[in-house]
Amino acid sequence: MLSAKSLFQEILDNDESFRLFCSIAAGGETQGGWENGRIAALVPPGLHELAPKVARHGADEDKHGRIFNALLKQRGLQPVTVPYETDYTLLLERRGIGLAHDRLSREEPLTERDIIVYLAHSRVTEQRASEQMRLLLRHFAGHPVLGRAVKMISRDEDSHLAYCHEELLRFARAGHGRTIQSVLRECAQAEIRVYRDVSLAVMSHMGAVLGWPRAKSAVLAAGIHAMHAYERLVGWRRMVSLEQPALRDALSGPAVPENEYA
Fold first, then answer.
1. Taking Cα atoms as reference points, which of 179, 161, 180, 178 lies closest to residue 123?
2. Burial 151-172 (b: 16+ CB within 10 A, else e)
3. Of 23, 140, 132, which is closest to residue 72 (Cα–Cα)?
4. Cα distance between the two ends of the chain
5. Is 12 within 8 Å of 73 (Cβ atoms)?
6. Could you write out the DSSP letters of every residue in 42-93?
7. Distance between CA atoms of residues 262 and 258, nearest Å
8. Under a CB-based contact definition with an 8 Å cutoff, are residues 162 and 245 in contact?
9. How many angstroms separate the CA atoms of 67 and 6, rounded?
10. 17-62 confidence digits (pLDDT tens)
């Protein structure tokens, strides 16, 4: 019987599929670390109080990249080049979602709208990350190798999502509500398409590595398309709502090092 747990266990048990999984994850997290680091450096003077939180966000993402690379090292594996069609972060940027890398590469302060775009983009993508890590947490919290890493990253992703809610609500109270909702909807609609495409690509690569029969690949592809149809119709709404999080000031203070997590 196909299930999220059995599929991931199959990927985990094979060196080549595990290497691809960790390489994709590490690449995305490292890229997110760079983006947040640049945004922290370019926060406009009027929003200087946000800079430490954005920097903390970036430090967390860098840490996640190191964790996935450490998982590879523990098995004596080296990262592989991430296939273009599986690069979630890059494909979102190519669709014009978030702040373009050429903009972040310039030494020019961002605008208030740029910060709103960054937070809206992060609110959508952190929703996805939080959900994915909670799924892994449900099935692998007790795993002797993955358990500790999953707990670390899931806790951070929940904090990132809480931070995005809180900061966007502050901007909404300052009169930017309509802009925020417009950007959130645009980001959500693009993200669900990119997530579908990346999911199909990852499953295709995993199927080739693991020798999945056509019938199994077809069932998985159908499930991905069904999820996309649901998200395109109604599921996207969970990515654009804003509510005061239970966890307040989630990114105040420095990032917690890997070895200090319980």
1. 161
2. bbbbbbbbbbbbbbbbbbbebb
3. 23
4. 34
5. no
6. H--GGGGGGHHHHHHHHHHHHHHHHHHHHHHHHTT----PPPGGG-HHHHHH
7. 9
8. yes
9. 23
10. 999 999 999 999 999 999 999 999 999 999 999 999 999 999 999 9
Whether the CB-CB separation of 128 and 158 falls below 8 Å is answered with no
Whole-angstrom distance, CA of residue 39 vs CA of residue 109: 9
How many CB atoms within 10 Å of residue 143? 14
Q: How many residues does the chain have?
A: 262
In the chain, helix, strand, coil percent, each to 5? 75, 0, 25
3-class DSSP state of 14: coil
Q: Could you give the CA distance from residue 213 to residue 234 in angstroms, rounded to a whole number? A: 32
Segments in the chain below pLDDT 50: 260-262
With tokens 């109604």, the residue in question is 234
Degrees (nearest 5) of the Cα angle 103, 37, 108? 35
- The 8-class DSSP code of residue 98 comes to S
Rounded to two decimals, the pTM is 0.94
User: Which DSSP state fits 173?
Assistant: I
